[in-house]
């Protein structure tokens, strides 16, 4: 473990920091946070410089509350992110950085396909890394009361990086504080950053080897299993029991094959647990997903983002375009919110009523479909909304 990671872990163990309340006067909050950091070993002048001239960033709060892109269906989302140009550039970059991708697989077991997919989606292969001041973004989100427990440790991690000379006060990145080509938070950089180019520094904004190997190490940390697939497109018989689909049901891959599940490209991975994923119901694309797929939710919590990134990773490795099918129309934003409200009233935990078809809403939809005698494929329809 790097010394920085050890020091960061010590800072997180501070009960005083854990009890610091969110919200309230911003200047008072900054003063209290700075004082706690000093009490936990950060030099006074270092803390003073790091916390100087800060104010909340309204653009960050707006972005945090308006992630409407994740309301798109899988077909809409994937078609908006995946283009021929991105495929061609991805495959060219795979050749250009072949030795680094080989090292990522040898050292961390992570396939180049999935690393390329995240590199593409997070920053368009490094071209668009975000223009938000990272320090200001993290402090804004740590002070805000929506997710302070997530972002307060990241402020401390950025402060520790600054103390070590690995973080400039004018560092920019994504609105949520992620930095570099594969968009990693400061805490992950401290604990799992890799000096891939051997220059003695970990610079995820400018070094492709550093960025890719750090991303691979992070995926390994979250449970990525070497030598195993993450997703295969499948074709299902029309008589399939749709209630068995979804991430909640996991069976050996060969058992799915015995039920008539056919792998479209390749062969079934015997001995591996797998689930059937229908991102737009039984009339749309179908995928068999393996344990590695589940680790991707530790990179991004969005169901549609993770499914699209996983699919793009298979395309970069040579898979054919999916069979889009003809899914039932997606609900409008107002209809989805109405559905989530009714599901909540029935006792289901769908999280926020935000119009996003996330994992919790999918589970609730599938349960209600089964209860009402509808095909239980977890894809909400107008018929289901009306029945409820």
UniProtKB/TrEMBL annotation:
Keywords: Signal. Pfam families: PG_binding_1, SLT_2. Residues 26-312 form the Transglycosylase SLT domain. The keyword DNA damage does not apply. Residues 334-387 form the Peptidoglycan binding-like domain. Residues 1-18 form the signal peptide. It comes from the Bacteria. NCBIfam families: MltB_2 (TIGR02283). This is Lytic murein transglycosylase. It comes from Paragemmobacter ruber. The lineage of its organism: Bacteria, Pseudomonadati, Pseudomonadota, Alphaproteobacteria, Rhodobacterales.
